[in-house]
UniProtKB/TrEMBL annotation:
Residues annotated as domain JmjC: 141-300
UniProt KW Transmembrane helix keyword: no
Organism: Peucedramus taeniatus (Olive warbler)
Protein name: 2-oxoglutarate and iron-dependent oxygenase JMJD4
Family listed: Belongs to the JMJD6 family.
UniProt keyword terms in alphabetical order: Iron, Metal-binding, Oxidoreductase
Length: 425
């Protein structure tokens, strides 16, 4: 991360502290014990900006409804309560015993059928002819907004992904995971190279974490990442020629109630050591939006290489590349522009009009800006102007039909820079 751009104003830099972030000792991940002595400023300075992982103690989640109601007295999933609340829901379920490309195949199941399977799986000594099924990526908060499940900790409240997708009302990046002992997630980095946080409602997880860049040593001779980073094949130099150059992963055992913060671009593999339920968010903000933009450029370049032989026969080749990229990643350059526009306009609105209590209570993004303060909004805009300037000058972006974008990139940049100048007067 370019730490110099952090100092968007002298006042803002003083507000968040002028000390250097702690170095991350080999094999060690910081454990944050007490909520009352750990501020957002501490998290921003020591973990978001330097892109370091950390663990929050169970004290940070003890008041959540899910911690109180989804768990039995002995720390197991409270199946009866969950069936009462969500029995009729349909949920996405992955088979951990089957590899499909570089992930596990998914199916949609009624939640009550999945719970029935889970109970039988436990009774049979954690075996089933159906395989090890893992409920993953369930948008429970979107489907049941009235339920008292959890509250997002303030440290993760600057969340542009969910701010944008809430605004366009088509998706979100808030998930519930539920699975038996032995269920797992193959080696991956999170969507758009976002940050993620994961809170265990009950159960324990083991995480294998590789800092950003280490994944390059784990690729096979064709440039593909492994499905399972613990597989013996990785030691075969004929298949994985650079594996010996990789460092051992950071290993975390996450207990019930604890929250793990996964930095942007860190690849990881995760195992449920017990029957486990977790809440997971992916999020992007001003600290890592440049990483997201670099990821999108890399993805487009990969698509262009794959279909380069069709460049001359196809008149709208550049548009086709965008379509393929969106089908693979979930976003293209024009939507990325709209994503930045929503973030920018929300903050400019706050800077120009201020925050009133009623509007902030009705708008999650304005509530977050209110909580973090006006100078944080300025920081967001300073980071966005760099990425938006790069996008606007990007050759592949300029080849697209931009007439549908309103305002135009030039006008939005002008408004953005003017708002920053005015705010810093």
């Amino acid at each position: 991360m370019d730490r110099a751009t952090f100092a968007c104003s002298t006042a803002f830099f003083r507000d968040f502290g002028n000390s250097s972030p702690r170095a991350l000792p080999g094999g060690h991940v910081d454990f944050i014990d007490k909520a009352d002595s750990f501020t957002y400023s501490d998290f921003f300075r020591d973990y978001l900006i330097p892109n370091h992982p950390c663990i929050f103690s169970a004290k940070f989640t003890e008041d959540w409804g899910s911690r109180k109601n989804w768990v039995t007295w002995d720390g197991k999933p409270n199946f009866e309560h969950l069936l009462q609340k969500f029995g009729e829901a349909v949920v996405p379920v992955a088979n951990c015993d089957v590899k499909e490309y570089n992930s596990n195949p998914k199916e949609q199941l009624p939640f009550k059928e999945y719970v029935e399977y889970w109970r039988e799986y436990i009774r049979n000594g954690y075996h089933s002819s159906r395989g090890c099924l893992y409920l993953k990526d369930w948008h429970l908060s979107r489907a049941f907004p009235e339920q008292d499940v959890y509250t997002t900790p303030v440290y993760f409240s600057s969340d542009w992904l969910n701010e944008y997708w809430d605004a366009v009302a088509v998706d979100d990046f808030r998930f519930v995971y539920m699975g038996p002992k032995g269920s797992w997630t193959p080696f991956h980095a999170d969507v758009f190279r976002s940050y993620s946080w994961s809170a265990n409602i009950c159960g324990r997880k083991k995480w294998l974490l590789y800092p950003a860049g280490q994944e390059e040593f784990l690729k096979d001779r064709h440039g593909n990442l492994p499905f399972d980073v613990t597989a013996p094949d990785l030691r075969d130099k004929r298949i994985y020629p650079r594996y010996s150059q990789s460092k051992p992963p950071l290993e975390i055992v996450q207990e019930a109630g604890e929250i793990v913060f996964i930095p942007s671009g860190w690849h990881h593999q995760v195992y449920n050591l017990e029957d486990t339920i977790s809440i997971n968010h992916n999020w992007v903000n001003g600290c890592n939006v440049a990483v997201m933009w670099c990821f999108l450029q890399d993805e487009l370049a990969a698509v262009q290489r794959e279909i380069s032989q069709w460049k001359d026969p196809i008149d709208d080749w550049h548009l086709q590349c965008q379509l393929i990229m969106k089908s693979c990643t979930g976003i293209d350059y024009k939507e990325f522009y709209n994503f930045l526009k929503v973030i920018v306009e929300n903050r400019i609105s706050v800077l120009e009009k201020g925050l009133d209590e009623e509007s902030s209570s009705q708008n999650n993004s304005k509530a977050a800006i209110s909580t973090l303060g006006m100078l944080h909004a300025v920081f967001d805009l300073k980071r966005t102007v760099k990425v938006l300037s790069s996008l606007s000058a990007n050759e592949d972006f300029r080849k697209l039909d931009l007439t549908s974008l309103s305002p135009s990139p030039e006008a939005l940049l002008q408004h953005l820079e003017s708002a920053i100048d005015t705010a810093l007067l």
